[in-house]
UniProtKB/TrEMBL annotation:
Origin: domain of life: Bacteria
Protein name: Ecotin
Taxonomic lineage from the root: Bacteria, Pseudomonadati, Bacteroidota, Flavobacteriia, Flavobacteriales
Pfam families: Ecotin
Keywords: Signal
A GO MF term: serine-type endopeptidase inhibitor activity
Family to which this protein belongs: Belongs to the protease inhibitor I11 (ecotin) family.
Signal peptide: 1-21
InterPro entries (alphabetical): Ecotin_sf (IPR036198), Prot_inh_ecotin (IPR005658)
NCBIfam families given in the database record: PRK03719.1
Length: 161
């Protein structure tokens, strides 16, 4: 009987510690975001908080800044650039997007002139994976940020001749 009360008390204590740790992590994440500047007029702040991963030094993050647009059969890209800024006094980076949403593309003759919705984006960038700091972006209000995590394949052996 005494043993089961001890187990129940331990489980309750662990649940309390876990809830405390979760609240502390949420508070830390909010502090991290608040230390970055506020978004300028016409822009929004977007951030990516990466989950903790094994072997983070082996991973990379590729991000795409763009918008959904109705486009023809040509290959399109968004005109603009991504500027890396230093968060003064902290040593962290954030990204400011310079783009008016204009697109460029190939000039193939599209036989049916049919338009389809596509995600058109700026030249993607690749950065190192770091779950300790968010990736923070300042993008025009009509744009979004997408990303993917790049993982190394199993090591391959070169062909020798």
């Amino acid at each position: 009987m005494k043993f089961s009360k001890t187990i129940i008390a331990g489980v309750i204590m662990l649940a309390g510690v876990n809830a405390f740790a979760q609240k502390k992590a949420e508070k830390f994440e909010k502090l991290q975001i608040e230390m970055f500047p506020k978004a300028k007029e016409g822009f929004k702040q977007v951030y990516i908080q990466l989950p903790i991963a094994k072997n983070e030094n082996d991973l990379k993050v590729e991000f795409f800044v763009g918008a959904e647009k109705m486009l023809d059969c040509n290959k399109h890209f968004l005109i603009g650039k991504i500027n890396t800024q230093d968060l003064q006094g902290w040593g962290y980076n954030y990204y400011e997007i310079e783009s008016k949403g204009e697109t460029g593309g190939t000039l193939m003759a599209c036989p049916d002139q049919k338009l389809t919705q596509k995600f058109v984006y700026l030249q993607p960038e690749t950065v190192r994976y770091n779950s300790k700091l968010p990736l923070v972006f300042y993008v025009p209000k009509d744009m979004e940020v997408r990303y993917r995590v790049l993982r190394p394949d199993a090591m391959k052996k070169a062909v020798q001749r």
